[in-house]
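Predict the assembly for these two chains.
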Amino acid sequence: MHGRVIRVGDMGEFALIDRLQRFLQAPSGSQVVKSIGDDCAVLQPSPESELILTTDSQEEGVHYRLDWCAPEDIGWRCLAINVSDIAAMAGWPLGAVVALSLPPELDVAFVDGLYTGMQELARDMACPIIGGNMTKTTGRVSVTITVLGEVPKGQAIYRSGARPGDEIWVTGTLGGAKAGLEALLQPDAVAGLPASHALMCYRRPQPRLHEAQFLRQRATLHSLLDLSDGLSGDLRHICQASGVGAQIEADAVPIHDETRRIAHALQADPLSFALHGGEDFELCFTAPPTQIDPIRGDFDQQFHRSLVRVGTIRKGKEVTLKQPDGSETVLPARGYDHFRPAEG
Amino acid sequence: MHGRVIRVGDMGEFALIDRLQRFLQAPSGSQVVKSIGDDCAVLQPSPESELILTTDSQEEGVHYRLDWCAPEDIGWRCLAINVSDIAAMAGWPLGAVVALSLPPELDVAFVDGLYTGMQELARDMACPIIGGNMTKTTGRVSVTITVLGEVPKGQAIYRSGARPGDEIWVTGTLGGAKAGLEALLQPDAVAGLPASHALMCYRRPQPRLHEAQFLRQRATLHSLLDLSDGLSGDLRHICQASGVGAQIEADAVPIHDETRRIAHALQADPLSFALHGGEDFELCFTAPPTQIDPIRGDFDQQFHRSLVRVGTIRKGKEVTLKQPDGSETVLPARGYDHFRPAEG
C-alpha cells in the first residue's frame, strides 16, 4: 500500500459507489439494459430460457484471512464461488449484484482491490457486475454476491437425476484448495515445497462454466454440481436428492503432485484432502456408461484438462470407498458445515 | 421466548436449512421451476419481459436493534425494503434469495421468527423465497436479500426521466418511520402519546407494489423511486439522474397526526422528519401536469390512501423548499449516508 490512506468512513457511501464504477467495464453483451444507478438493474433475458439465481457470502475471518489473500483474490473468489453455482446448473451468467458490509475505518484501497479482482473474473466469465448495495458493519468485511443466469428451457441439470449404473466423473484434480490452505496455515512445515498450483486453487478458483456448457451440449448428464463442500459431502448431496448410493474408487481420485507432496509433508493422507477438503470448485457429474468416453478427447483438447471417472452410482443409500485391494468401507460425511466445522 | 434454547451452532447448517423450509409455503404462481435444494433456484420468466434485480442488507446494531423489533418484524422489513425497490421500477417480484450471517450462539427461535416474518410479506407480495445461503459470522446477525423481478419490456420507470414542468407526487404521509424510531429511542419523552401508526411505519414498512402497477398502467410517469433515504435525499437522486431541479412546497408535504405530535413532544419540526427522515418506503414520482388528477379518485378507492402532490420539477440543479409565505430556500441534502450518518 502506498500513498495516503483514505477511509471508507471519510469518503461516504455515494462517493464510494461512484468511485467503484471505474473498475467496472461496460458489459459487452446486449443483455444489460440498465446497470448501477437506479433502484434495480434491468436485464433482457434470451427468449425460451429459464432463469437461475444463486447467492453466497464470504466474511473475513470465517472464509478468508487478509494475510492469506490479496484483496484482488478475495474479490475474484467471492464472485467465482457464485459463478461456479451457475456452472453447476449448466447455465451461463447474465449479471451479478454485490452487497458489501464495510467497517468505516477500512482503507478504500481494499475496496478498490476487491473490485479489481471481481472485475477480472467478471470479464473472463462474461458476468457483468450490474448493481449492489453498500452498508456499514460493526463487524468485519463481508461480501455477499448474487448471480442471475440463464439456461435453455428444461435443460438445467439438477442434483436429483442420478441413477444406479451412472458413472461418476470430475473435471479435474481434487484437494488442491485444501493443500493451499494448509500451506498458508503451516508455512514452516511445507517450506521449500512447490505450492503455486495449490495456492492458486485456494485463492483463484476457476468456475468450470465453459466445461459445463460443453458437457450439456455433447452428452446426456443425469446430475451435476460443483465441489464446494468436498467430494464426500457433495456426492452425498447428489445421492440424497436422487435416492441412490455411490461407490468411489480410491485409486481413481485425481490428485495433483503438489497436493500429494504438501499432504505428505504434513503427515496427512492426500486422499483425505481430495475427498473432504472442499472448495475445489471442480464439477462432479453422473452420466450413463456410454456417454462420456467418446467426448473425452475433445474435452482434453478444448480445455487442456481431463475428465476423470471416480466411481459409480448404485442402489441404496450409502456412499462407500473401494480400496485398491478390493476392500470397501462406508465413507463418513465430513463435508464442511458452517456452524460445525469438521476436523481436517 | 419459551422452551429450551437451541443454538444455531448446535443444530448445524444443513439441519437448519431443512428446518426453515417449513416456514416457506409453496409458491402459488407457476414461475418457480425449482426452489431451495440445488446449486441455483430456477425460474420461468414471462415472455417479452425485462428482468429487474436488487439487493440490500440489514445488520443488527446498524439497521435495527433487537429491543426495538421482534424477529418477525426484522424478517418482514428486510424483504420489504427489497420488494420496495422492485415497486420503484414499477415491476413485480418473481422470487427472493436470502443470505444469512449468523453467530453460532444465536437461538434458533430467532431464525424461525425471521423466516415467519419474511414469509408473511412474501405471501402478501407474491414474492416466494426460493433459495439462499447460510454462514457463520464473528459479528452480529446480518441479512442480505436479493429479489429478482420483471416488468413488461421497455416499461421500467427510471429515476432519470424527470422533466421541467413535471408534478412531484408521493403515495402517502412521510416522516412516520422517523417518528417511530424516535419513539423507540426516547420512550419517556413521548409517553402517553399514540404511536401505533409510527411504530408500524418503522417495523413493518409496506412496499407500494400494487400502487406502482396501477400508476404505470393508468398514467405516464416520467420518473419513479421509493423513499428510502428521505424526500430531500431521494428527490436529489431524481434531479441528478435527470439533470433537473425541483421545488417542494412545505405546506403540501403530507404528515400523519401521530408524526406531528411525536415531533412536537421532542421539540422537533415535523417537516424535518418528513423531508429528511427516510425509510418511509412510499413512492415518489414525477408526471406531466394532466396525468394524475384524473386517476386520483380511483387510486383512493382502490388503495384507501391518497396521492399527494408535493412540488414541481424545474430547470436547473437546485432542490428548493417554498414556505407558505412565498419565501424559498435551498434544501440541504441530509439523506442517509451509511458511512457518514446525517444529524437528525
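The CA atoms of residues 111 and 190 of chain A lie 32 Å apart. Residues 71-87 of chain A form the longest helix (17 residues).
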